[in-house]
């Protein structure tokens, strides 16, 4: 029995709706396993800009540092999409949080529930057995380098930077994870063109002999994009840079059936943050139709990684599995054969998972 403090940071759009379901599941786990979870909440993203002018207010950051773990939703707002010159943006809150908390490794498991095999647009025989763990580097690359305009604003630049230290620390995490799985590591770069990728490859090659039990391959990012669809089973652990990881995991979400199924854990040296990989999805915000399973599965990662509660985490994953086996779906994972009465909204899907706990 443990006492833990969890900060709930729903953010924007459907982040609000799905995070409420993740918290519901954490509450049930605490009751079922005799733990005490205390909660606080905080603002980030557009919601924080509206309230304070700052996408990551100091009070939010302070609460994050003090929490045992953070359950995060999403950031974003369409108004900024049509205003490329906006100086303050919701995403700055997310990036600053990663930098300030030192969240350098973003783990994105591509977990395919068997029940969703038929729903995917990829053939079941190609998908069956696919199980990939992505390590996306999270505090470097083009996201954090110098950016700006020159030539009277007619030329824009973003500088991509990686140090040996940054590559090595995430590579070691990925090697260690591969050791606990099928012992295969694929490092993804663009070393035929990009200098940061050449350093990336050099570092992986240098430390690989320390992990002789792990089979290492290097792939270019363009080839990886193709192979993920052609033969997803060939991958076990994949480690890659921030931008490549952002793009490849959205693609890989189709292996799991939907962006609404993918959870993530951002880990570093302090408080870890757990969130769906999807964004704020304002096109469906307020309609109560968003898939809460990515948030619920993020809560499962939180239990396992931050609290070491393996049985509790597995109970959540099993509950999700049972709900899917019973035929319940949100709209994003339903197919033509799904009966209308099995297509649920956000809260009803959360309730079904709860009922299995
Ligand atoms: N829950 C993930 C989220 O809010 N994503 C929106 C976003 O701005 N993503 C950029 C990134 O992950 O680097």
From TrEMBL:
<keyword id="KW-0432">Leucine biosynthesis</keyword>
<comment type="subunit">
    <text>Homodimer.</text>
</comment>
<keyword id="KW-0460">Magnesium</keyword>
<feature type="binding site">
    <location>
        <position position="108"/>
    </location>
    <ligand>
        <name>substrate</name>
    </ligand>
</feature>
<dbReference type="Pfam" id="PF00180">
    <property type="entry name" value="Iso_dh"/>
</dbReference>
<keyword id="KW-0479">Metal-binding</keyword>
<protein>
    <recommendedName>
        <fullName>3-isopropylmalate dehydrogenase</fullName>
        <ecNumber>1.1.1.85</ecNumber>
    </recommendedName>
</protein>
<feature type="binding site">
    <location>
        <position position="222"/>
    </location>
    <ligand>
        <name>substrate</name>
    </ligand>
</feature>
<keyword id="KW-0963">Cytoplasm</keyword>
<dbReference type="GO" id="GO:0003862">
    <property type="term" value="F:3-isopropylmalate dehydrogenase activity"/>
</dbReference>
<comment type="function">
    <text>Catalyzes the oxidation of 3-carboxy-2-hydroxy-4-methylpentanoate (3-isopropylmalate) to 3-carboxy-4-methyl-2-oxopentanoate. The product decarboxylates to 4-methyl-2 oxopentanoate.</text>
</comment>
<feature type="domain" description="Isopropylmalate dehydrogenase-like">
    <location>
        <begin position="5"/>
        <end position="353"/>
    </location>
</feature>
<comment type="similarity">
    <text>Belongs to the isocitrate and isopropylmalate dehydrogenases family. LeuB type 1 subfamily.</text>
</comment>
<dbReference type="InterPro" id="IPR019818">
    <property type="entry name" value="IsoCit/isopropylmalate_DH_CS"/>
</dbReference>
<keyword id="KW-0560">Oxidoreductase</keyword>
<feature type="binding site">
    <location>
        <position position="250"/>
    </location>
    <ligand>
        <name>Mg(2+)</name>
    </ligand>
</feature>
<keyword id="KW-0520">NAD</keyword>
<feature type="binding site">
    <location>
        <position position="136"/>
    </location>
    <ligand>
        <name>substrate</name>
    </ligand>
</feature>
<feature type="binding site">
    <location>
        <position position="98"/>
    </location>
    <ligand>
        <name>substrate</name>
    </ligand>
</feature>
<dbReference type="InterPro" id="IPR004429">
    <property type="entry name" value="Isopropylmalate_DH"/>
</dbReference>
<dbReference type="InterPro" id="IPR024084">
    <property type="entry name" value="IsoPropMal-DH-like_dom"/>
</dbReference>
<feature type="binding site">
    <location>
        <position position="222"/>
    </location>
    <ligand>
        <name>Mg(2+)</name>
    </ligand>
</feature>
<comment type="pathway">
    <text>Amino-acid biosynthesis; L-leucine biosynthesis; L-leucine from 3-methyl-2-oxobutanoate: step 3/4.</text>
</comment>
<feature type="binding site">
    <location>
        <position position="246"/>
    </location>
    <ligand>
        <name>Mg(2+)</name>
    </ligand>
</feature>
<keyword id="KW-0100">Branched-chain amino acid biosynthesis</keyword>
<feature type="site" description="Important for catalysis">
    <location>
        <position position="143"/>
    </location>
</feature>
<keyword id="KW-0464">Manganese</keyword>
<feature type="site" description="Important for catalysis">
    <location>
        <position position="190"/>
    </location>
</feature>
<keyword id="KW-0028">Amino-acid biosynthesis</keyword>
